[in-house]
UniProtKB/TrEMBL annotation:
This is Uncharacterized protein. It comes from Eragrostis curvula. PANTHER family: EXPRESSED PROTEIN-RELATED (PTHR33074), OS11G0569701 PROTEIN (PTHR33074:SF76).
Length: 106
């Protein structure tokens, strides 16, 4: 997977101050597939964008919430005809390793 440089937000959103985030979070083991509307509201501080080996754009971010509520990983993959199941594999410090399973719609 090839990473992409993050473009400045066109919505004019500014980054949230560090004290606006919980000091620690519980990661939800399973994430969600988000629509374009949710992606536009993603937190730019937790957003990562990349391209798959086949050249498709993919974006992932964390929806951080204070414990004890688990914080899910959110994925936006505009490829139509697929359902996405993101799953957290491991986390350490400020890094999260996750996998995505694709399901074809029939």
């Amino acid at each position: 997977m090839e990473t992409m440089a993050r473009k400045p937000s066109s919505s004019g959103k500014t980054a949230a101050p560090a004290d606006a985030y919980p000091s620690w979070v519980i990661l939800a083991p399973y994430g969600t597939h988000e629509k374009e509307e949710s992606y536009s509201a993603a937190d730019v501080n937790t957003l990562a964008a990349a391209r798959t080996t086949t050249g498709h754009s993919i974006r992932a971010w964390l929806r951080l919430v204070p414990p004890p509520t688990p914080s899910p990983i959110c994925v936006h993959f505009p490829e139509s005809g697929k359902h996405i199941h993101p799953q957290v594999i491991a986390a350490h410090g400020d890094s999260v390793l996750f996998q995505i399973v694709f399901e074809e719609y029939y």
